[in-house]
Design brief:
globular, 375 residues, 8-stranded parallel β-sheet, binds zinc ion, alpha/beta, single chain, 11 helices
Length: 375
């Protein structure tokens, strides 16, 4: 054979091998996380069996939610570390029930003057105001205790947002609403402190404005309240040499800012876990890719994005389900959701939740990992 032809063919083979190797390596280094719960106070044996199983299935990290008692996180954290798993404690920030002991003044107030303390816009949505000093102090106390546990790698902030001023479309039927624009009963926070502080910086008394939604500075004021709170919590976590990340709404620009006032690309934390729950937005797996691309761009590729995927717990019943909380990716959609995320720049995947994953979902994940390992 002509030596130049030989060289040409060899180059093609080498380039092809390199491409295959690169794809394989990339996939193998993708971190897979799961959200999981321990509210029923599981025993050591139960947690050991569960975490061992998750590790064997290819899971690299646990985002663990079990209420506020640090002892529960210490037990689970110790076991997670035994199996070489990353371990983050997850707690809601700005929804707090009466047991938290906060006064009514600490709760957000809507555009009609109703407090979320006793008259929330949606059931159980008892949101507290991010602008209140006592709210920050309370969050420092509860998150600080979890960060002090040696086997807790860090915290994940959950419900670090305003109540949904616009609900995701799939929830309109559930709550019997049509949210074509912002309505005052879902629009927060008009508490005395927020109104006074906004007047001080803008000169505008927002209570006297007919259409507050049209005042961009008022929106920005509320984005900044969340951003400042997050950044102060981050300083607290970093002072303890721990990590801090957050479960956020998709976007941020197309959804999170508009519906829950999270301008999250400005938050000074380690990573973001956008809840790319496509069924809530009546979208397919391509949309998951679009959201990841937006998130990566918004953070200038400087912060890792872990794409949160919503798993359908009863695939055979999905077509008959009325409650969107029971929707989610079917086993046959899971690989497409993962691939769309990674192709569009997500650093990893987080599954909601470990408990919603059926044997068929796990089989898809195992096949995906094995395929990449063995091809
Ligand atoms: Zn307020």
């Amino acid at each position: 054979m002509n030596k130049w032809l030989c060289f040409f063919l060899l180059s093609i083979v080498l380039i092809s091998c390199h491409s295959i190797q690169r794809v394989r390596t990339d996939f193998n280094t993708i971190p897979f996380y799961v959200w999981t719960r321990g509210f029923h106070n599981p025993s050591t044996e139960e947690l050991q069996a569960k975490f061992f199983d998750l590790k064997n299935k290819g899971i690299d990290g646990i985002i663990y939610s079990a209420g506020k008692d640090p002892i529960r996180y210490e037990l689970a954290g110790n076991i997670a570390k035994k199996f070489g798993l990353k371990f983050y404690a997850l707690l809601p920030a700005l929804i707090q029930y009466k047991e938290a002991g906060l006064k009514k003044e600490s709760y957000v107030v809507n555009g009609l003057g109703d407090s979320a303390y006793d008259k929330p816009a949606y059931p159980r949505n008892h949101f507290i105001c991010p602008n209140r000093p006592e709210v920050y102090n309370y969050l420092v106390e509860i998150y600080g205790k979890l960060l002090d546990i040696p086997t807790v790698d860090g915290i994940q902030l959950d419900v670090i947002r305003f109540p949904d001023v616009i609900l995701a479309p799939a929830l309109w039927k559930k709550y019997n609403v049509v949210m074509d624009k912002e309505y005052p009963q879902y629009d927060y926070c008009y508490c005395d402190k927020c109104v006074t502080d906004f007047k001080t910086i803008s000169g505008i008394n927002i209570r006297e404005i007919d259409n507050p939604s049209g005042v961009e500075a008022w929106k920005q004021f509320r984005y900044d309240l969340i951003t400042n709170l997050v950044n102060r919590l981050a300083e607290m976590a970093y002072a303890k040499n721990k990590k801090i990340n957050a479960a956020v709404f998709p976007g941020p620009h197309s959804i999170a800012k508009k519906i829950v006032r999270q301008e999250w690309h400005k938050w000074k934390i380690d990573a973001f876990f956008p809840m790319n729950y496509n069924d809530f937005y009546l979208e397919d797996t391509n949309w998951i890719g679009d959201m990841c691309r937006e998130s990566v761009r918004a953070t200038n590729k400087k912060k890792p994005i872990y794409s949160g995927l919503f798993i359908c717990p009863n695939p055979e019943n999905k077509a008959n389900e009325l409650d969107p909380e029971n929707f989610g990716l079917l086993p046959e959609e899971l690989a497409a959701g993962i691939n769309a995320s990674i192709k569009n720049g997500a650093k990893g995947i987080c599954l909601f939740t470990a408990g919603r994953m059926t044997p068929a979902h796990w089989a898809v994940l195992t096949k995906l990992l094995k395929k990449e390992n063995n091809d």
